[in-house]
Design a protein that fits this description.
With 341 residues, this protein is an alpha/beta fold. The protein has eleven helices and ten strands. Strands 4, 5, 6, 7, 8 and 9 form a six-stranded mixed beta sheet that branches. It has a four-stranded mixed beta sheet with strand order 2-1-3-10, with helices on one face. The chain starts with 9 loop residues before the first helix and ends with a helix.
Length: 341
Amino acid sequence: MNSFRRPVLGAVASVAMLAAFTACSEPADPAAASDESASGTLTLYTSEPQAKIDALNAEFTAANPGITVEVYRAGTGDLNARIAAERETGKIGADVLLAADAPTFEGYKDDDLLLQYTPADASALNQDIVDPDGYYVGTRIIPTVIAYNTEAVTAPPTSWKDLADSKYKGQITLPNPEVSGAAAYNTAVWLSEGSLGESWLEGLAANEPVVAESNGPVGQAVAAGTQPIGIVVDYLVRELAAKGSPIALEYPTDGVPYISQPAGIFQDSANQDAAKKYVDFLVSKRGQEIAVEQQYLPVREDVGTPDGAPAPADLELLNPDLAQITASQPDAVKRFGELVG
């Protein structure tokens, strides 16, 4: 259900728009509209693949030569553990968090850890990925799909319901929701969907899927044919197919869960000016062009999509109530462990 919520961005957005209209001139790229004096070191915590974040940061620092970006990269679960440990000792070490799922950011927003900031050009973005309270913004649309090995599967499953069919017993692999933020989010979404729910998860578990550590090993297993069917994020399938692997994907007809890789600024950031410029860059036209080059679906409509990929508006994207998903996610992950192991 590609239902688009249209949240009001609030007073912060109104002030930003007023400033844009009253300025003497408007820059070509709204990402250039933030404080030109921003400089110093920016510390980023992220779950982005290393090569991708390195490429993105190279462009950001070329456009902002006064800013140095230091990166700590880990899975979302490990990032959350690091942030929890730092909170215990007094101060979070990051300026910006760029990680997998909105529920993570909802939790930090509720704990009053995030700075309220609406990025430049927010009106150009898909409003489903913009926090209506202005504490974080999505930077990519990353759907979870059904991948299959084209040499082993001639009639692939096309829906989540199909994966509970006993004919797929022993053929499925999926990432561990205790490790993968996307997998944890997906599990909560599946359980919240009336057409799926716990009975569907029980059916999936009965097919004895192989639980991999994360999305990467799932994609590799399907590409190699060791498990002919996988539940995995879509960009990995495109990357593997582009390298010649016999792998393809189906966007499930009964709804496509997705994460938006949000970015948010911590309140105790030591360099808020640089952090704001960084968030602006992520969702700017150039930042989103980089996302497309890196095989992601973008969060704005003026940059195209990766070769062969649909536009987000053409997908049956699931947009559940984030408060409900945030509250239910720990129990959903626990239930997955009980059923699937």
